[in-house]
Write a structure and sequence with these properties.
The protein is of the alpha/beta class. The chain has a single domain, classed as Aldolase class I (TIM Barrel), CATH 3.20.20. 44% of the residues lie in helices and 12% in strands. The protein has 15 helices and 9 strands. The strands form 3 sheets. It has a 3-stranded parallel beta sheet with strand order 8-1-9, with helices on one face. Helix 5 links the parallel strand 3 and strand 4. It is globular and about 55 Å long. The N and C termini lie far apart (47 Å). The chain binds ligand V47 and iron/sulfur cluster. Iron/sulfur cluster binds next to loops.
């Protein structure tokens, strides 16, 4: 199916796309046309710029009671390979010589059955104290709701305490696919899609910006993807709190769901392009090279993406699921791949303010 002329007109005029438009875009075989449309919008919003950040990931623990069917990272308490870090070990990771230049720390874990809320407050406080100029982007909506429930406090109280400790921003993980029929199969114990959106709405209203994700290419339908994007767009209309959207291709190789193939390269590029076109109120789309591979992420810049994430030291979630990407990239490597795709590399902070060095 080719792209209907009506959609070209809507994009040219900046008119919002409907659910049907989104479905028709996913159904098209005109990959190049789709890329052209997404590139038009991306150029309108972000010119030739492709952003990156000097960041590192810290996973404080992989112990998780949720046991999502797609996840190779989470371990049950006592299972081989389960780990948890002390506050000192976490601080060492942000004060090590190789972390000297970072401007962002991305901290996530699992849903631990017993750690007290004070542990999470202490993580944020200690990292902020060790590196006051770094942005602390920590804990998904799923983790925050879990911590609050264990501590018997509200999500608002949990976020107030984390903000007080130094939390600047929240990552976008845990969204998966909002459709209850999919969630009940791939992550039945996890916070619902509605719950995820509600935690994010609370965070945004408290002045905590967040990212958003979508895990695609497993058992969901095209309609589920479009509905997921529309739910994010509707919340963004209300709060304007989402900074960046990150489409995450399902990595199947080492996942417990390895019988399902992940998305093809064409599907990944299509999904990035449709995300750019549907999410007219989220300024940035991330080509997360860790899960895409650097080569596909480079192509994604021509299909609507404008952000390359960053140096990403010590990523575990994607690599444990079989990601075939590097462990980390240097700033020179990021600049090289962006530039050789025909874009202008711009170092940014976590909120996409350009940084001049
Ligand atoms: O929430 C888990 C996903 C997410 C697999 O906000 C998997 O800046 C693919 O959210 N295949 C964590 N994906 C990663 C994440 C993220 C990454 C980079 C930047 C930001 C940001 C957020 O990874 C999880 C889950 O949705 N995930 N297992 C898998 N087998
Ligand atoms: Fe736990 Fe997150 Fe893995 Fe689900 S995806 S099992 S919540 S770590």
């Amino acid at each position: 199916m080719s792209i209907p002329a009506e959609i070209w007109t809507k994009i040219k005029n900046g008119t919002r796309l409907s659910r049907d438009d989104g479905i028709r875009l996913f159904q098209t075989n005109d990959l190049i046309g789709l890329g052209e449309l997404a590139h038009t919008v991306r150029s309108r919003l972000n010119g030739k710029r492709a952003y990156f950040v000097r960041n590192r990931h810290i996973n404080y623990s992989n112990i998780c009671v949720n046991g999502c069917a797609f996840c190779a990272y989470g371990k049950q308490p006592g299972e081989a390979g389960a780990f948890e870090l002390t506050i000192n070990e976490i601080v060492e990771k942000v004060t090590a010589p190789d972390a000297k230049a970072i401007t962002e720390v991305h901290i996530v874990g699992g849903c631990h059955p017993s750690k007290p809320f004070s542990y999470y407050e202490e993580i944020v406080r200690a990292v902020k104290q060790a590196r006051p100029s770094c942005i602390v982007k920590a804990f998904t909506a799923v983790e925050v709701e879990h911590f609050a429930r264990l501590e018997n406090i509200s999500v608002t109280q949990a976020l107030e305490r984390l903000k007080e400790a130094g939390l600047d921003m929240m990552p976008g993980g845990g969204a998966e696919i909002f459709a209850p029929s999919v969630r009940s199969k791939i992550c039945p114990k996890k916070l619902s899609g509605e719950g995820w959106l509600s935690v994010m709405e609370t965070a945004h209203r408290m002045g905590i910006p967040t990212n958003a994700t979508m895990l695609f290419g497993h058992i969901e339908s095209i309609e589920d993807r479009v509905d997921h994007l529309i739910a994010l767009r509707e919340l963004q209309d209300k709060t304007n709190g989402f900074v960046c959207f990150i489409p995450l291709p399902f990595l199947s190789k080492k996942s417990p769901m390895s019988h399902i193939h992940g998305p093809t390269g064409v599907d990944i590029l299509k999904t990035i392009a449709v995300s750019r076109l549907m999410l007219d109120n989220i300024l940035h789309i991330k080509a997360y090279w860790v899960m895409l591979t650097v080569k596909l992420a480079q192509l994604a810049l021509c299909f609507g993406a404008d952000d390359f994430d960053g140096t990403v030291m010590e990523e575990k979630i994607g690599h444990m699921a079989g990601a075939e990407s590097e462990d980390a990239l240097t700033v020179e490597e990021l600049q090289y791949v962006i530039q050789s795709a025909g874009f202008e590399p711009v170092e940014r902070d976590s909120f996409f303010n350009p940084l001049r060095r």
